[in-house]
TrEMBL record:
Claim: Transmembrane is one of the keywords in the record: yes
UniProtKB keywords: Membrane, Transmembrane, Transmembrane helix
Top-level taxonomy: Eukaryota, Metazoa, Chordata, Craniata, Vertebrata
Residues in Anoctamin transmembrane domain copies: 2-151
This protein's record includes keyword Transmembrane: yes
Record protein name field: Anoctamin
Superkingdom of origin organism: Eukaryota
Amino acid sequence: MCLVSIILYRAIMAILMSRLDNTLLAAWASRIASFTGSVVNLIFILILSKIYVALAHILTRWEMHRTQTKFEDAFTLKVFIFQFVNFYSSPIYIAFFKGRFVGYPGNYHTLFGVRNEECAAGGCLIELAQELLVIMVGKQIINNVQEILVP
């Protein structure tokens, strides 16, 4: 649900910014929308990360393992799967699915009334690198600030 909302956010922001009177903002509309979408995605990742750890703990407790080792193994597997999907769903979308379902002139496909995103002329590699940079570096910066402020 969060990934779909970020996709819609990027598309709507790109459309709104391209219609502005400022030609500089209109030219960079898709890049700005992509960057701000990456930052919003990072915020969603951080929030969902806490929720997924709590959910994994609840689900593992329901399983009622016989030993602490089996409990920890099951908990670690659940946290790994949740975190993998949480962190890499957006880069996987950009790398493999973005721009594949756009349609053609005169018959563009839409998602909730908004035209599907498409890659730039050179492809989605720059946007993918930007997404990974924001997620990986942003997470490290937030963790370092948190470690300094909350010992």
